[in-house]
Amino acid sequence: MPSAAEIRRLQDAHERIIDQLDERHSARLESVLEELEDQIEELIGAGVRSPEDALGKRVGIQAALQGTFLGFADSTVRDYDEITASVVSTLEQLALIEGFVPDDAKVITQLKRLSFAGYQDIANTYLSTIADGLYQNVVAGRPDREIIKEMRQVINGVYAKTDDAAAMELVEFVKRYKDNPRFADDVAEAVNKLHTIYARDRVGNNLRRYAYQQVHDAIMQFNGSFTKWKADQAGLKHFEYHGNLVKDSRDWCVSHQSRVMTEEEIREEWATRTWQGKSPGDPFIVRGGYNCRHQFMPVDPEWYGITA
What we know:
Helix 1 packs antiparallel against helix 5. It is elongated and about 75 Å long. Strands 2-1-3 form a 3-stranded antiparallel sheet. It has helices at 4-45, 51-78, 81-93, 102-139, 144-156, 165-177, 184-196, 207-234, 251-256, 263-272, 283-286; strands at 238-242, 260-262, 295-299. The chain is mostly helical. The chain folds into 3 domains: 4-157 and 204-210, no CATH class; 161-200, no CATH class; 237-304, no CATH class.
């Protein structure tokens, strides 16, 4: 029987792999969105003189999204093999399973397809947003410079590139310190200036927002789905809710932190409780909701003195 320290060590090691993958993909996404911005500017800068020209640009916009954003999506989904290897290794070391089985390959492939489909949905949405916005602006006779500015902000919101040195300085400041709690007030002030002085996207309805959410949620949902699949194979019905709490953690996450529950208990509580940020779906997949960093780890009840 593994010790409490050994259980925690293996759980933490798996969580680190998830976090590292999330951070790596998020860092890559930064340059991907900047590249997409540049390609859209080049496409529009080549000249859009009539509504017919604007309609013709849709093919180019689609190609730009496929070559940048969906190319990135394909490579990130391929990286999910790191997750499956970690899940299997963790459960093996805890003597809960005996490794991969032949059916795993089909399940992994399909789960990857589902993750990629989430990226495709975002790409299709923003293909329409960018192409339709371009058409409307051309019909209205808006200057190219203003059209390009709007298209950049549709992609990157307040992080969009600009020729204005002062605005770009604020953009770089926000990028550098947005995840540092010591600079939270300064970042908020910089973002407010970008909103008010430089008329940047205020509501956050841009490609960047949904792309970063997809990076995180796709990883966590893939992990949750595959972990539950392996637990079912092993006949495991007890799970510990594992992850770190932060100051704005949801009620569900706070009340379930480190709790060991049966699948039946989890599903019953999920069906009967509500909380801010709860998202539709299976509790083992969506957990606390969008951007949740928790996971259900299968365990042996005997480790905790629980009578199965």
